[in-house]
Write a structure and sequence with these properties.
The complex is a heterodimer. By secondary structure, chain A is of the alpha+beta class. In chain A, helix 3 (about 90-120) runs antiparallel to helix 4. The radius of gyration of chain A is 20 Å and the shape is globular. In chain A, about 45% of the residues lie in helices and about 15% in strands. Chain A has helices at about 55-60, 70-85, 90-120, 120-145, 165-190, 190-195, 205-210, 215-220, 250-275, 325-335, 345-350, 355-360; strands spanning about 5-10, 20-25, 30-35, 150-155, 155, 290-300, 300-310, 320. The mean pLDDT of chain A is about 90. Chain A has a single domain (about 45-335), classed as Cytochrome-c3 Hydrogenase, chain B (Orthogonal Bundle). In chain A, the strands form three sheets. In chain A, strands 1-2-3 form a three-stranded antiparallel β-sheet. The longest helix of chain A has 29 residues, at about 90-120. By secondary structure, chain B is α/β, with parallel strands linked by helices. Chain B has a single domain, classed as Beta Polymerase, domain 2, CATH 3.30.460.80. Chain B has helices at about 20-30, 85-95, 120-125; strands at about 10-15, 30-40, 45-50, 60-65, 70-75, 95-100. In chain B, the strands form two sheets. Chain B has a four-stranded mixed β-sheet with strand order 1-4-3-2, covered by helices on one side. In chain B, strands 5-6 form a two-stranded parallel sheet. In chain B, strand 3 (about 45-50) and strand 4 (about 60-65) form a beta hairpin. Chain B starts with 8 loop residues before the first strand and ends with a helix. The mean pLDDT of chain B is about 85. Classes of the chains: A alpha+beta, B alpha/beta. At the A-B interface, strand 7, strand 8 and helix 10 of A face strand 2 and strand 3 of B.
Chain lengths: ~350, ~130
């Protein structure tokens, strides 16, 4: 029997964008078990419900994470709107969909770049982030902020996207699509890339289901679920199907996210084509929320759950975010078993971990 | 126009003694543990165990309302992935949970304050 030893991995590591620690039990070069530790950046954002009223909490929710900031704000607002029982203006629903899909695109492009960096393909990393800049420019043009743009409010949105900007988004995503097709070929067809991704870190459909995996991580293992199907924002007006794969390996995770990038561009085109010409952007909200709701939103990393409980006072009683990375940690630990020590950095990246979201 | 799913969303209050049975039932029915959430309201804990069906999107939440001194069983023997949720409830709220498969001993989030969102916080505020 090979000698067992424990290798500490993280929280500071060149591959890790955010701090997570793993105790890796290894036999020679093979990982037998991985025990994760988080808690390096816990901020206690949820406890701010004592100090910020339900409107101000929108801004707190948006600051949970820099990457999926818009979707955090939207999830919180949708939960409160359900409690109020209000319908937001149709144009606001489409605007939320447009910003949500721009956010998904820049998040997936960020991830693709990090993945390329993880397997040592620096030029591919630069290309992905160069393309991502165009999406960030769109976000800045439409909202004034590149990542955290605070456009959500309970009842709708506070900013509109004029017609000329919508046309600019359409022409930009045409450019992005052409450039992405070149990058896609390298990610999916290049022999060297395939050798690092194919058959590495396999998680079966049964394992992914039992471990509660969410988002592209679960869909890459064949779990056919996408919370956008629940019909929040303008998704009832958009034609799309979840992108799934059945291989469950790192290549499938990459394939799913690339597929979702093209899907997001399609959703953006549909949303811009169908956006109604209204002037109302928000439904006025009277009084304070009273009730509770679990709102499920499909973030770039998967299903996020926003729980809000309110008692008719300005300060909600409880606000809780269950982030997709929190749900994907058990799947990560299972996936790392029986893999080579040299693949750990890459495999941790394939769940697209967002630790600041997770710790809140 | 895309097909929109309008799933059933059920919230059922249960006794602590029925927790393991309900969890086992849901696992047998093919549900996925979606989340566990704790809240400290009116000097009691409200614990919500939510299960999702990935095909129908149905969402079932079991709600336990217990006194702060009541100890509840861990569900990690049935659903191992619950360990992070249970450790969070224990560390942030001070919920008493016995037999968690991997107990971080209040070091999941590495915070110095004991149960910051639990009863002690309410006492301090008073």
């Amino acid at each position: 029997m090979a000698k067992r030893s424990v290798i500490p991995y993280g929280p500071q590591h060149p591959v890790l964008p955010e701090p997570i620690h793993l105790d890796l039990v290894v036999e020679d070069e093979k990982v037998v078990e991985a025990i994760p530790s988080i808690g390096f950046i816990h901020r206690g954002l949820e406890s701010l419900v004592d100090k910020r009223d339900f409107n101000q909490m929108t801004y707190v929710a948006e600051r949970t994470c820099g990457i999926c900031s818009f979707q955090h704000g939207m999830g919180y607002c949708e939960a409160v709107e359900h409690i109020f029982g209000i319908e937001i203006p149709e144009r606001a629903k489409f605007l939320r969909t447009i910003w949500a899909e721009l956010g998904r695109m820049h998040s997936h492009l960020l991830w693709l770049g990090l993945l390329a960096d993880g397997f040592g393909f620096e030029n591919l990393f630069y290309q992905c982030w160069r393309i991502r800049e165009k999406i960030l420019d769109m976000q800045e043009m439409t909202s004034g902020g590149r990542l955290i743009f605070s456009v959500n409010t309970v009842g709708g949105v506070i900013k509109d996207i004029p017609a000329d900007m919508l046309r600019t988004i359409l022409s930009t995503i045409d450019d992005v699509e052409a450039e992405l097709k070149v990058v896609q070929r390298t990610f999916l067809d290049d022999y060297t890339v395939q050798s690092r991704l194919k058959g590495v870190g396999v998680l079966t459909k049964e394992q992914a289901h039992d471990l509660g995996c969410a988002g592209p991580f679960g869909r890459a293992s064949g779990i056919n679920t996408d919370m956008r199907k629940l019909g929040y924002a303008a998704y009832p007006h958009i034609d799309f199907e979840p992108i799934i794969s059945n291989d469950g390996d790192s290549y499938a995770r990459c394939e799913c996210r690339i597929g979702e990038l093209f899907q997001s561009m399609d959703i953006l085109r549909q949303a811009i084509a169908k956006i109604p010409n209204e002037t109302d952007l928000a439904t006025p909200v009277k009084g304070n929320p009273n009730g509770e709701y679990f709102m499920r939103v499909e973030q770039p990393r998967g299903e996020a759950i926003y729980y809000v409980k309110a008692n008719g006072k300005p300060y909600v009683e409880r606000f809780r975010i269950r982030t997709p990375t929190f749900a994907n940690l058990p799947g990560l630990c299972e996936m790392l078993k029986n893999t080579e020590l040299a693949d750990i950095g890459l495999l941790v990246l394939t769940i697209d971990p967002c630790i600041s979201c997770t710790e809140r | 126009m895309a097909e929109v799913i309008h799933p059933e969303e059920i919230l059922e209050e249960i006794e602590a003694s029925a927790l393991l049975t309900k969890v086992m039932e849901k696992k047998k029915d093919g549900y996925r543990l979606s989340q566990i959430c704790a809240a400290y309201i009116d000097e009691k804990y409200e614990l919500s165990y939510s299960f999702a069906d990935d095909e129908t999107y149905q969402y079932v939440t079991y709600r336990l309302v217990i006194d702060t001194d009541v100890e509840i069983p861990s569900i990690t023997e049935i659903i191992p992935q619950a360990l992070f949720y249970e450790n969070e409830m224990k560390e942030l709220f001070g919920v008493k949970i016995k037999m968690i498969s991997l107990d971080y001993e209040n070091r999941l989030y590495r915070i110095r304050q004991e149960a910051p969102l639990g009863p002690k916080k309410a006492e301090k505020a008073e």
